[in-house]
């Protein structure tokens, strides 16, 4: 019990520090392969994916490169996929990660068939401290949007209660 509480406090403190620092830290972009970035994050989360018996599909061209700050961008992908894992229902759970190139833009979509987000909270999910999770800090999507904005990217979300969520990163 105490160990879980200390992990939660540590996580909350880290999120609060990161939120308070915001994007003051310079974004250092370099050319990276998107599929490798996504696969690296999935490797970090592999035990949680396995424990929850989630089927993950990745549909990203092997040679698709993006200009990003690798560590910051990985944090965004990590937060979004972790949300998808935590939203799983426990039966036939699926996360689809795909990239689409269109009109000189890349759309990275992370789609799950989890519990979804109700309409009454959907408009405020990017605001600090808004969460639907008992153990959530309400800062994950706020930080993700700040990081993406610092890259000049956008973040869109579509969700329906009990049907799942689709997050699109527009690069």
What's the topology here?
Blueprint: H1 2-21, E1 30-33, H2 34-44, H3 46-51, E2 55-59, E3 65-68, H4 70-86, E4 94-102, E5 105-112, H5 119-122, H6 140-151, E6 154-160, E7 164-170
Parallel strand pairs: 2-4
Antiparallel strand pairs: 1-3, 4-5, 5-7, 6-7
Task: Explain how this protein is built.
The structure is a single chain. By secondary structure, this protein is an alpha+beta fold. It is 41% helix and 26% strand. It has helices at 2-21, 34-44, 46-51, 70-86, 119-122, 140-151; strands at 30-33, 55-59, 65-68, 94-102, 105-112, 154-160, 164-170. The strands form two sheets. A five-stranded mixed β-sheet has the order 2-4-5-7-6, covered by helices on one side. The chain has a two-stranded antiparallel ribbon with strand order 1-3. Strand 6 and strand 7 form a beta hairpin. Helix 2 (34-44) packs across helix 4 and helix 4 runs antiparallel to helix 6 (140-151). The termini are far apart. The mean pLDDT is 84.
């Amino acid at each position: 019990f105490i160990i879980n509480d200390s992990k939660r406090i540590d996580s909350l403190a880290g999120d609060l520090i990161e939120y308070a620092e915001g994007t003051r830290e310079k974004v250092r972009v370099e050319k990276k392969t998107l599929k490798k970035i996504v696969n690296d994050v999935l490797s970090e989360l592999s035990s949680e994916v396995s424990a929850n018996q989630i089927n993950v599909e990745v549909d990203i061209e092997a040679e698709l490169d993006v200009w990003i700050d690798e560590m910051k961008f990985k944090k965004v992908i990590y937060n979004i996929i972790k949300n998808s894992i935590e939203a799983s229902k426990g039966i036939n759970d699926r996360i689809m990660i795909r990239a689409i190139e269109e009109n000189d833009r890349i759309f990275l979509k992370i789609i799950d068939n989890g519990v979804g987000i109700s309409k009454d909270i959907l408009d405020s999910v990017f605001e600090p401290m808004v969460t639907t999770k008992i153990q959530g800090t309400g800062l994950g999507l706020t930080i993700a949007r700040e990081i993406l904005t610092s890259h000049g990217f956008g973040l869109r979300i579509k969700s329906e209660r009990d049907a799942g969520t689709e997050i699109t990163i527009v690069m």
